[in-house]
Each structure stands twice: as structure tokens, then as C-alpha cells.
Write a structure and sequence with these properties.
Largest sheet: 7 strands, mixed
Shape: globular
CATH topology: Glycerol-3-phosphate (1)-acyltransferase
Order of helices and strands: HHHHHEHEHEHEHEEEHEEHHEH
Distance between the termini: 49 Å
Low-confidence stretches: none
Length: about 325
């Protein structure tokens, strides 16, 4: 495991020394191989897009699909470049659109739970400490089966002092920091399908019945921390802009799953605006049939109930 880790890291570190404009030339060469030759998960992407945008014809779907793959390959090289990027160069690639959101919380001595999606280049979330130095930045992650890759990704993501926390340790670590009065921004990437045994809440997401990860809301309510939505918008190749939106300042004022629904709606709006920047390669809706077959086990949103009734499901 250690040998594989050092080999991978050494190769990626050497590649990261190459100027980003040159890496994008490599991206231009690799894109047709990924899209036309290897056809990496093209069936999954096509199905996801068609189901998410039933009002679009095949020509429009393919156009989005191609833009997605171009962005996807770019993102790989951007992440490679991130490994060797200098701190002074961060503002050239990553900007902060509305710092007043975080400044307002800091003035009130409040921490926050932050929900985001696999949108833009989420790996550049690692720049968070640069723009929020007064906060202890946490990022929750799911441990990978390949130990060398898992160690490599933790190394990359924690380069600028983001504290990588396994999902199963999240609540314990947040409560520990809170007891020490350490201000924190705890980030969740909460847009993929939750594990089957953890599903509680289901709603309509991108025109499809979807099981929704509710851990964001649960932790916020348990720790009494405000909830924010974060999106990392692509400005152009190699340049992104971080933007926050308030979801709930006092989570206790919201009904059960209301925060989860607000997060889902915000994410959906951003995906619909520029769909090519979301990660379409995941089998996000592979359990939808289970939701329909076992709907009595879950809390269903009004929009999902309306969909089921309308379609006699």
C-alpha cells in the first residue's frame, strides 16, 4: 500500500509542476479518448441526463453530455495541478464571491454546517482555510476501499489544513470542537444516494423520485449550528468562484426534513442552470424502484406524493 501511494503521489506531483495551460492541452487530447473511445460511463450519463431533462430532445442532451465530459477531463487535470499549487496563486484560480455571509456568522461567534454537491470542482473546497482563516475547516468523506488511493486523496484534500473526517466520526468530532469553543465550518457533499439502510426521506430531485441524504440536517439540529449551501461555480477553465447561501440560521425553527428539502431545491436550481458542471457519472437513481416498492417505509415530500398520484404509481 505504501509503495503504491508513494508512486502515485510522485507521478502526480511531477505532473503538477507543469503549467495549467499545458495541462489543458493534455485535456484536449484526452477528451476524445474518454468520450469516443473508452466511452467512460456514457450509458449512465446519457440515461441520467435524459431522465433529468425530459423536456430536452436528444440533440440537446448530447450537447450537454459533451460539455460535461470536457469539463470532467479538465477537472482531473485541475485537481492534479492543485497538488503543487502555491498559496500565493490561489486567488488566480479560486475566488470568494460573498464573504459577508461567513463574516456575519463570525461576528455572532457562530459555526456552520455546509452542504454542497459534486458541482464545479468540489476538490478545490480544500482552499476554504485560505478564505476563512478564523475557522477550523472540516470536510467529511467516505473512506475508499483502496487504501493507497484513500491516503492519496486525504493528502491532496488536506494540503491547506482542511481536517478530513470519516463520516462515521463526524458528530463526535464536531461536538468535541464545539465543547472547546473552536469555530468551525463543517462541509458535507450531500448529493449522492444514501446507503439503502439509512434512507429516511425521499423527494423529487431532477424530475425523479430520489432518496436524499439527511445527515446534514440531523447534525445541524443536534449541534444547533446554522446551515449553509455552498456552490463552487466555474468561471472558465481553471477558475472557480465560491458562493454561500443561507438555508437556516436556527435549525430548531424548521420542521423535520425542511432543511433537507431546501438544500435539495438549491442544488437542483444550480444544476439546471449549468448541468454540465454536475457529476453525471454516478448511478444516483439506482434505488428509485426500491422507493416506489417500499414507499410506506419513508417520509415522502409533497412533490413526490404529487408525482406518484399523477402517474398512478
Amino acid at each position: 500500500m505504501n509503495i503504491m501511494y508513494y508512486i502515485l503521489y510522485s507521478i502526480l506531483w511531477l505532473l503538477s509542476r507543469i503549467p495549467l495551460r499545458v495541462l489543458f492541452l493534455f485535456s484536449d487530447l484526452l477528451y476524445p479518448l474518454v468520450y469516443y473511445v473508452a466511452r467512460y460511463r456514457r450509458g449512465v450519463v446519457r440515461t441520467n441526463l435524459k431522465n433529468s431533462f425530459p423536456d430536452k430532445d436528444l440533440k440537446e442532451i448530447i450537447a450537454i453530455e459533451k460539455r460535461f465530459y470536457r469539463h470532467f477531463v479538465d477537472m482531473v487535470f485541475e485537481t492534479v495541478k492543485f497538488i503543487g499549487i502555491r498559496k500565493k496563486d490561489i486567488p488566480k484560480h479560486f475566488k470568494y464571491k460573498n464573504p459577508e455571509i461567513i463574516d456575519s456568522l463570525r461576528a455572532k461567534n457562530l459555526s456552520a454546517v455546509v452542504g454542497m454537491g459534486h458541482y464545479g470542482n468540489w476538490e478545490w473546497l480544500a482552499f476554504m482555510p485560505y478564505y476563512a482563516p478564523d475557522y477550523h475547516s472540516l470536510s467529511l468523506y467516505k473512506t475508499l476501499h483502496n487504501k493507497a488511493i484513500d491516503r492519496l486523496m486525504i493528502k491532496i484534500r488536506s494540503r491547506f489544513d482542511v481536517d478530513m473526517i470519516p463520516m462515521q466520526n463526524a458528530l463526535r468530532q464536531i461536538l468535541k470542537l464545539k465543547s472547546q469553543n473552536i469555530p468551525m465550518l463543517c462541509c458535507f457533499i450531500a448529493d449522492q444516494a444514501p446507503m439503502g439502510h439509512t434512507v429516511e426521506y425521499c423527494t423529487m430531485f431532477l424530475n425523479q423520485p430520489s432518496a436524499i441524504f439527511s445527515g446534514l440536517e440531523k447534525i445541524a439540529k443536534h449541534t444547533k449550528q446554522p446551515v449553509l449551501f455552498l456552490t463552487i461555480n466555474k468561471v472558465k477553465r481553471g477558475q472557480y468562484e465560491m458562493e454561500f447561501f443561507e438555508i437556516a440560521i436556527d435549525p430548531s425553527e424548521y420542521k423535520e426534513y425542511e432543511i433537507t428539502e431546501k438544500y435539495t431545491v438549491l442544488l437542483e436550481k444550480h444544476i439546471q442552470k449549468t448541468p454540465e458542471y454536475w457529476l453525471w457519472t454516478h448511478k444516483r437513481w439506482k434505488r428509485s424502484h426500491i422507493i416506489l416498492e417500499n414507499r410506506e417505509r419513508y417520509i415522502l415530500s409533497p412533490s413526490l406524493k404529487e408525482f406518484l398520484d399523477k402517474n398512478n404509481l
